[in-house]
Prior knowledge:
The chain is an all-alpha fold. The protein contains eleven helices and no strands. It is globular, with a radius of gyration of 29 Å.
Amino acid sequence: MSFFPRRGRASEPDQDPRSTVPEGELVTPGMRIAGAWSWRILVVLGVVGVVIFLVMQLRAVVIPVFVGVLLAALLNPLVDWLHHRRVPRVLAVVAAALTLIAVVGGLGYLVTTQVSRGAEDLSARSMTAYADFQEFLLDSPLHVTSEQFQELLDQGVAYVEANWQSLLGGVVSFGSGLTAFLSGLLLALFTLLLVLYDGRNIGSWLVRLFPRRARAAVHGAARAGWTSVSGFVRAQILVATVDAVGIGLGAAILGLPLAIPIAVLVFLGSFIPFFGAIITGTLAVFIALVYQGLWPAVIMLIIVLGVQQLEGHVLQPLIMGNAVKVHPLAVVLAVVTGTMLAGIAGALFAVPIVAALNSMIAFIASGRWRQQSKPLPTPTAETRPELGRS
């Protein structure tokens, strides 16, 4: 006799209540939504992982192509300006490329001559400062002996030697040989010239790889991404110039002998947001310490920190923020992630890639491409002089 009587008539057989419930109703709506989101997120992460893996494997090609595209975004307004004044586009492209080569070559020559003149004196003063620093550590409450300091220094050098490839990322493996470096340089120059001259045809060809119904969205998203990259390059040039002038002028006022190379290195380092100018500014502080002592080095440190505050609180929000429309937190996370994945090259390309993706996704999500009824341009010989205009 059961203490739990059955429902209904006694002659009815036992039935599992779940057998009469549709299979879809056994899963709660929240779990179905979570499952739908989960597999889609896994697919997206899988695609992103495959893309990153391919980029890392092909970094010897990807890095020069990215460099060429960034330089094309910088020089494209100059090419358009010359072309609008009835200069043939091919001549405008050549003139812009020669201008870039002249500027880079001039800065390189200036830095090389300045450093070669002061290298011997800097080395001698560095050794003197090193000996003074050892005496300071020995006389300090820490009582660090020369052997202990040398052991710590050897450990740091060993760490750098063991991790130098991961620290520099793809740049080291790409430029490990003269042949690889020259081939990458030629590839970057070739990409620059083709994008400046034939950019519109290249873009139209890429868009036509997509289905007809998606071409309007892809075309508009590509234009939005290119606009963001162009804005990033121009804004970064301005920010880097302000950093270089501020720190270089401070070094010149203090009478440091390598003020011009310091300014050039700060300008180049500023293309890595937040971290580049700090690292190169540290060099200015070190030179001030070696040549003029502690208090001038402290003043140089205050100048570097002041320039960084100006960049972080004024230039980045007002100039860079309006150009790329990416939150500073996203910029920092992108730079850190890019550095972890690809070293210096990843830090350099992280922000323009994030800015381009942000603009492209925002354009597609806005739905403005549905209003586009104008057909895409077809590459022809007649339209070729206008190619490369963004």
